[in-house]
Amino acid sequence: IWDFETIDTANVIDETGLLEIEPINELQVDKNVKLFSMIKMNEVGNNFWLAQTQDPECLFSFHSGAIEALAVSPVTYLMATTGLDCK
User: Does residue 35 lie in a domain region?
Assistant: First the structure.
């Protein structure tokens, strides 16, 4: 975790445009670990980290934009919609 103000007010000295700063907080998971992503989950009373060690898998995808068609089940509480992007 880096301090935003340090980054925001930094003056780069050379032409590379690179700035090296020390993080204000670090977390060592384990030796020889390769994380693909890490997200802090904020829940009331519980703060924990979700760490993934492999590429994420898409579980669901949905259409975007306006609803173009709608189908409702006559026997249960289900419905489906579709949009112009065909999802």
Answer: yes
Does this model's pTM top 0.70?
Answer: no
CA distance 80 to 87: 11
Q: How many domains does the chain have?
A: 1
DSSP string, 33-73: ---SEEEEEEETTEEEEEEESS----------SS--EEEE-
Amino acid letter for position 49:
W
pLDDT in tens, 3-52: 778 878 888 777 877 777 777 777 777 777 776 666 666 666 666 666 66
